[in-house]
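To the wet lab folks,

You asked to see what we're planning to order before we commit. Fair enough. Below is the target structure as tokens, and below that is the sequence we designed to fit it. If anything looks off to you, flag it before the synthesis order goes out.
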């Protein structure tokens, strides 16, 4: 074969549904020397990550770790550890990620009760209560807090309490919310909550933060059958993360653990409330700019995610060629729609390090430029002006 050229990826501004731009401090942490995965110094680093994750998740759960693998590994770990064949799980499906949870429930041999909601809407607590009352004993209720395929944010108030009243555990996907919008595992009374590194934590993909409540751990301990996955079996992984035990299960991805430690240091240095306010401020400015381009939000009013802005493509515009030009000519990645929203929406992520004024202004200018080139009647500069007005009003 011909020699492969030196790796030199083009610079891209990652404003899609993930991965998000990685903080330079995280990249630096990743170039530091490896330790062995049982080295006492590395075990200290793992302890740091556990403490940082508890703070970010808003939990005191002792079982708070980072699963090796991307967000989907966190999803699978949460479900395969809690479910056994014959159990019943209610899954709220209002987008791609809810559908994936439903798929995993089926693979576990559990009975699936699917609560479907139109994409962009959130699931009513009353519907979940109704399903809990009519579905026989329910082991797990699963919801996506931040549905990245639609830009909707599921309200969590009262849901954990409701599940527990009916003897069920609550599993929550916070892949696109952790570090971007408030996640309160203990206040929600959630039992299994997972996330990913490459969304609002601004770290490369590769780890899935996961926390289980003591109640969930009791259920895992009382399993009658072995966990369907060897790799994700948390009863074994727990022995690696447990202080004092540190039993080998699989080799931790050392460099990724360095990365998440630095990413979480940045999150906690900024402070969670300040970070959430920043995500809201930049999302509001972006949406103000997009409104001038005739792009209406896809998600239900009052439930829009600041970390993932999903907007409808103006009528008569072919979305894919514009998105491709924004990538190749403007150097900015934005996302298209998935499933029933394919061809109909754009998804603009303002996650973690990527949530900034310069990025908002850059993506608005790129959209204006490409829409105008495509023959749309665009007043150049109007979207940026609307964004700047939004910033001025926010003070
Ligand atoms: C991105 C995402 C996932 C999957 O994460 P991967 O890192 O792609 O495996 C799961 N749930 C939600 C809500 C996501 O946005």
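Sequence we intend to order:
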């Amino acid at each position: 074969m011909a020699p492969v050229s030196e790796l030199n990826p083009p610079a891209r501004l990652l404003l899609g549904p993930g991965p998000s731009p990685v903080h330079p401090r995280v990249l630096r942490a990743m170039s530091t020397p490896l330790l062995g995965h049982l080295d006492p110094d590395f075990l200290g680093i793992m302890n740091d990550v556990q403490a940082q994750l508890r703070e970010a998740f808003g939990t005191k759960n002792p079982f708070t770790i980072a699963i090796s693998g991307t967000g989907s590994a966190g999803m699978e770990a949460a479900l395969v550890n809690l479910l056994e064949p014959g159990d019943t799980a209610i899954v709220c499906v209002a987008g791609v990620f809810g559908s994936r949870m439903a798929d995993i429930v089926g693979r576990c041999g559990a009975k699936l009760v699917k609560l479907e909601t139109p994409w962009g809407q959130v699931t009513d607590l009353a519907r979940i209560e109704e399903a809990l009352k009519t579905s026989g004993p329910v082991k797990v209720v699963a919801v996506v807090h931040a549905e990245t395929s639609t830009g909707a944010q599921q309200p969590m108030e009262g849901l954990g309490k409701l599940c527990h009243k009916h003897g069920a555990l609550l599993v929550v996907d916070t892949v696109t919310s952790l570090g971007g919008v408030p996640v309160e595992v203990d206040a929600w009374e959630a039992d299994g909550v997972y996330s990913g590194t490459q969304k609002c934590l601004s770290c490369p993909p590769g780890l899935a933060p996961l926390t289980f409540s003591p109640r969930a751990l009791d259920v895992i301990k009382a399993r009658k059958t072995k966990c369907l996955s060897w790799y994700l079996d948390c009863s074994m992984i727990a022995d690696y993360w447990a202080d004092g035990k540190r039993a080998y299960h699989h080799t931790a991805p050392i460099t990724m653990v360095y990365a998440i430690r630095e990413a979480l240091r940045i999150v906690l240095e900024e402070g969670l409330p300040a970070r959430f306010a920043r995500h809201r401020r930049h999302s509001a400015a972006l949406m103000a700019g997009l409104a001038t381009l005739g792009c209406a939000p896809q998600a239900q009013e009052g439930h829009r995610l600041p970390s993932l802005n999903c907007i409808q493509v103006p009528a008569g515009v072919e979305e894919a060629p514009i998105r491709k030009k924004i990538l190749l000519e403007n150097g900015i990645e934005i996302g298209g729609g998935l499933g029933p929203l394919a061809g109909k929406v754009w998804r603009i992520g303002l996650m973690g390090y990527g949530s900034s004024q310069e990025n908002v202004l850059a993506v608005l200018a790129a959209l204006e430029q490409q829409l105008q080139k495509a023959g749309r009647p665009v007043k150049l500069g109007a979207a940026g002006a609307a964004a700047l007005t939004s910033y001025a009003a926010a003070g």
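Structural context that might help your review: The longest strand covers residues 88-93. The pocket of pyridoxal-5'-phosphate is lined by residues 18, 70-72, 75, 97, 144, 146, 148, 173, 175-176, 196, 205 (CB under 6 Å).

Thanks,
Computational group
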